[in-house]
Each structure stands twice: as structure tokens, then as C-alpha cells.
């Protein structure tokens, strides 16, 4: 079963949500990121929780972030605190996760972690990937030409690369901004468009002319639009999105690995990239649509109500 979430996250609204639910026994669905304290949740029968990142996954992220640290730059105090506190937190999670009836993982790697490390029985772990509205994403060559003209990319530009995401350090933009100048020394007709905003936005603007666009794009949206993707070799991405080398390029979170991947993109050229883009779209239509996600959740809710529906083909 593949496709998104039931409930989850952690906010101060948890206790309020709990009080409302106790007063009204009807089913509650909320778009808020809420959570019940586990000492309350353990007394709720048939409770489903959604995990958008466990403590063990955050440890992987902290390791990658520190490995990307430039030589001579001191380790971040927040990383030190996270590394010191994560093991006790993982042990606590392993103990109280058992109290929940159903666990929804939004990536295959998270599902494996819940089963293998957190010791959740397989029948209680459901992998439901996020879905994208398939009506809003697709190939539009005319729009692409107009966009290139609007942002100032010359007509003879051989290749335009794009990166989308919040401009914060843990997104890894600094790796790209170190690798890209080295790339264009040998390939001056390659251009980079940066889409996003955030605390580091002004710092990145000061590095040189570029276009900052307030967009919120994901790898799945890019694939649904017929665009090959490039991504860090994180378990969640490798296990659920970049499941075939044909879909694009992966790199370790360091400058040399990223530069090697960028060189391969240029070497492949427009024709090969178009082939990869077609493969991306075909796969995304079969896996990452909002319709598929909704059907998966419908099946999950039936499963929660009746275990007979928990047997997936």
C-alpha cells in the first residue's frame, strides 16, 4: 500500500485536541499537525499515528549536515545537542510506539525503520506516500520558453538547472553554490535558477545574480511535470522516489559528489534528459497522484475499522 498521513506531529494543541475528542465520540479528522502525549494516547484504542520523521531519521540528517560542514567551520551547537540527545529519545520512542494500533509512514525507509528498529509488527505499519494533484502538473513547452525569456536565460543557453526549497542551511544550498561555479568554468552556457525564500535568502543573493522565486515544489511534482530530478542520497528519497536510475541523479551530500552528478547532467544533454523526464512522468502518474493517495487512505480507514481490509495485495 503506497501513498500520506492520518494524524501526527507535535504541537501545544495536543491537549486541547484530546479534550475535544473526549467530549465528542465521533471520528475526528484535522489538517493541523497535532499529537497526543503518549501517556494519554496509550489509553486510546485503535489509534493511528503518522510519522513524518522519527528521532532515528533526524540523526541521519544531523550526520549529513555536519559532514557537509566546510573545513575549519566549527560544529553547530544545535547539532551537538541533537547528537547527544537522540539515542535516549530513540529508546523512548521504541518503548511507547508499541502503544499505537496503526503507524502510517510517508516513505518506505520510514516503514522499514518502524518494523526493523522500532519493532512494530508488519501488519500495523502502513506506507502511504504523499500525492500530488495530477491536474496541476504536466509538460508545457510554451510556458517553459516564456519563463526562460522572463528570467533572462539566453536562447542559446544549452541547459537550465533548477533548485526549489526553503533557503535554509540544512537544505544544502551551500553545496550547490560551491559546486556550480566550478561547473560553469567548463560549461558557461549552463544556467541555474533558484526558487525559494528563507533566512539565508539575502546571503545567497549576495553571491551573485540569480532569480529567487517563491515556489514550493517537490521531487514528485517535478517528476509529474516530466522533469528528471537530482537529489541527495537520503534513504527516504532513494527508497520511495528515486527507485530507478532512469529517473535522474543522486549524490552524496558533499561538493565533489554533487559536482560529479552535475557534470553527468551536462554530458547527458537535452535528448537524454527528455528520455529521463518521460520515465519520471510515467512512474509519477502511477505512484504519486492525489487520487492514489486518497484511495490508499480510504483503504487504511477501512483497515482501522475492520482488520479484514488490512490484507493488501
TrEMBL record:
Any Pfam family the entry gives: Glycos_transf_1
Chain ranges of the Glycosyl transferase family domain: 154-205
Keyword Transferase found: yes
Bilayer-crossing regions: none
UniProt-listed CDD domains: GT4_PimA-like
Alphabetized GO MF terms: glycosyltransferase activity
Alphabetized InterPro entries for the sequence: Glyco_trans_1
Keyword Glycosyltransferase in record: yes
Record's protein name: Glycosyl transferase, family 1
Keywords noted in UniProt: Glycosyltransferase, Transferase
